[in-house]
Amino acid sequence: MEKFADEAVIEVSSGSGGNGCAAFRREKYVPKGGPSGGDGGRGGDVVFTVRRNLRTLAHLRYKHSFKAENGRDGENWGRYGRNGADVIIPLPPGSLVRDAETGKLIRDFSRNTDDFRFLKGGNGGWGNIHFKSSVNQAPRKALSGKPGQNVKLKVELRIMADIGLVGFPNAGKSSLLDRFTNARPKIAAYPFTTKIPNLGVLTSGDRDIIIADIPGLIEGASGGAGLGVRFLKHISRTQALAFLIDLSDDNYLEAFDILLNELNSFSTELAKKKRLLVGTKTDLEGTTERLGELRAKYPSEEVTGISVFSGDGIEELSRAFLRLTSAQEAEKKDEGELTDGFEGEEE
Fold this sequence. Notes:
CATH topology of the largest domain: Rossmann fold
Helix content: 10-25%
Number of helices: 7
CATH architecture of the largest domain: 3-Layer(aba) Sandwich
Strand content: 15-25%
Strand order of the largest sheet: 10-11-9-12-13-14
Shape: rod-shaped
Number of domains: 2
CATH class of the largest domain: Alpha Beta
Order of helices and strands: EEHEEEEEEEHEEHEHHEHEH
Largest sheet: 6 strands, mixed
Number of strands: 14
Structural class: alpha/beta
Distance between the termini: 55 Å
């Protein structure tokens, strides 16, 4: 059974600091030795780290609580307690970490994949060696360690890909992903075969293009129908979209309008992404004429036709995907340069 999880609620806790020690030297020829209690160790931190081999949050479903190690107590002879070990929580790229109570975004791991030290452990308490003074040669005072912190978090995963395949159930998305990439999605001749997002890598020239097969949409998906908004959000992290239109379906001329309306209802920004229309199953009788009608209805859209079965149009679509992703990256680079310039002027 395929295991996929795109949401998880976890509780994270940093370690408490160890207690300081109140002790005195006791040696044979030093009957009144001074204070010798060491400090407690520092508690461990809560650290999030991105693991690129992870594609799901399933590992957080089985373990809901993550706690760093407490610092050890100080000991006699001035020995300091050992610091507690950090707890490391691995996440896939594209994860969002929010406060479970307020919903406030704490970290977006699609933009910054560096390790994130979220909660710091408590400081260790001082031993009595710190409290010796000219008026108090034998202090019995030692401090307790500071407690750790505890927070309940909601972790969400949004698939990161260059191209998102969008279409109705059984439009041929999984078959295309299987043909294009090293992914092996489940494929069958009935709707809703795909229940989880699948990722594959298409190598075009010297460039790797990540393609996401999003579960099929139906009319009303933005309002929760079918698989609903649960998977619509995954498309928001793709750079561009490929709308797959089943040319063997009698509603082929209305399909794009319905799909675009669902995306627009979910997010206006999503509907503005660079895109192309892909007519599928061109090996079937009558689909060549239908592809021409699709192009005529949408003259301002890039429309191409393919057959996964015969291989017709596959190479052209590969080049189109490369053009889409290259154009999107060029735009982002230009926007970044402009932003840097404005920030410099303000400073």
